[in-house]
User: Fold this.
Amino acid sequence: MFKKILIANRGEIACRVIKSARKMGIQTVAVYSDADAQALHVRMADEAVNIGPAPVNQSYIVIDKILDAVRQSGAEAVHPGYGFLSERAEFAEKLDAAGVAFIGPPVGAIEAMGDKITSKKLAAEAGVSTVPGFMGLIDDAEHAVKISQDVGYPVMIKASAGGGGKGMRIAWNDDEAREGFERSKSEAASSFGDDRIFIEKFVTQPRHIEIQVLGDKHGNCVYLNERECSIQRRNQKVIEEAPSPFLTPETRKAMGEQAVALAAAVDYCSAGTVEFIVDGEQNFYFLEMNTRLQVEHPVTELITGIDLVEQMIRVAAGEKLTISQEDVGINGWAIESRLYAEDPYRNFLPSIGRLTRYRPPEEIATDNVAVRNDTGVFEGGEISMYYDPMIAKLCTWAPTRAAAIEAMRTALDGFEVEGIGHNLPFLSAVMDHKVFIEGDMTTAFIADEYPDGFQGVDLPEETQRKLAALAAHMRMVWESRDAKISGGILNHRRKVSNEWVVTLGKAHFPVTLGSDDLGTLVGFEDGTTVHVSSTWTPGQMLAKAVIDGEEIVAKTERIHGGFRMRHRGADIKGRVQSPRHVELASLMPEKLAPDTSKMLLCPMPGLIVQINVEEGEEVFDGQALCTVEAMKMENVLRAEKSGVVSKILVKPGDSLAVDEVILEFE
Assistant:
């Protein structure tokens, strides 16, 4: 077994590999860019080597710098994680030439399966069901349009060397095919150094289901069941689960056997994933094979009890698998929620900055529930514009799907993140969404259920009443504390009123407060009374309470006249005021927002890649105005209505902050 391995990656996956290596008694070496000098994976590793400036093309994907770090550290093997160099055959070849083990599949498998065009041809030869499409080289945008017409719209335009949703576009007509080809080609070149593109039929009403395979160097290979990855945003997975709520045992077996057959066709060893698109009739089609560890591997580990990173290391060291297909079962249900530094209220655009507060829920593992949080950040750390916006992968396990969902709801309720925009509200909303609860989602879930973007959640009245009761209790605690302080200073105790009106958005709840030995009694206008028991004290941001025997958790923040309260995807102001205050507040005029209708504002921190218009040019609804790159993704900003460009305030290469003005209209 290896004594020392180097992890050629960063963030949560580097931390994840370090944990398994440490469990196995193996020393670890981290690599880091200048931007990651204080990163968590650097702190966790036994050694760390600097590999250059922040941009990935000057550090993490420069093979010679990684090889130099291997030589400096004396590492015997390298785990590539996912992304970066994980599917670069050249990297594996150079490691082999240097006498260093690559903790991944052989070069031939990487070349065959890492190239999506070649992999589809091999899949068809191996008897794997494939999607109709064009696997040859595409000359230019017009050639892409001709191919798309032949295949039949809609089509998927994808980077051959792509992954993680980058270099991927869906086109429904000639114009979208033309633009999609250009954007995919550009993203592929910048992200992977390979701008080859292919086109295939886009399956409508699809589900994205993948099979985890694991093979050794002795010809043994098994499949570790499936993962459902249908909830995606911009082709990037957001929520995954294992097993799928959709597959029958017969379909699972058929998909698993085809995945193993494909792995055998290229002498695959190590962990890998065969991705399929599945229609409503459970017909499945091969998409691609990822010759690496997947981001969502924890849900497979939770239902099988198999440590995939450990198995990858053992296979790379030449050991035989001790697992047969008969040993692989399905124990319970697991769900993963990807926490991203993306603002759901701004169409999930990236957010960067410092994590002023980062308090994940406690990790636990019992016979009835498990909570696991794979992360690469810490409170006070910074989310950089140079890398993927993932903050953490929160996973829950329980004996049933319903229990796993409930465990995820509770875990998300208690996850505190401040300082940046993040998608926690959206993740919470999905856990309560009828379509998800019924397991009836497709890859179009976000587009179908949130066509106008995510605007938060309208909580049911029962939940609003509980939050109103909690807010009233918190105000009473706060006022009682202030009364004691003022009484101690002035020797005159201020009387605290017991009549309040709690305003949650547009809903008003007149309440009367009382107390007993166990907590606060909150009486509503309709004569009902609830009992609130909580240890919350002023200043705490996480308010936990038991209201009439049911637990509730809300993230809270003091605001004028009450509290900002965030719960289950809702973000509302809970003002607790006297009846007279509410009466007078209704007479106050509303403050109007500034008029920005004649400006194009930068929706995220990013780099201006291209300006598509000129001053004085007339533009039309939907026309591309400029391209902004953020966190390795290119975002085209379009005109919302017709107009004339009066002033352009930026140029390509400029770095902009959120809401900085790009151009103005007449």
Notes: The chain has a mean pLDDT of 92.
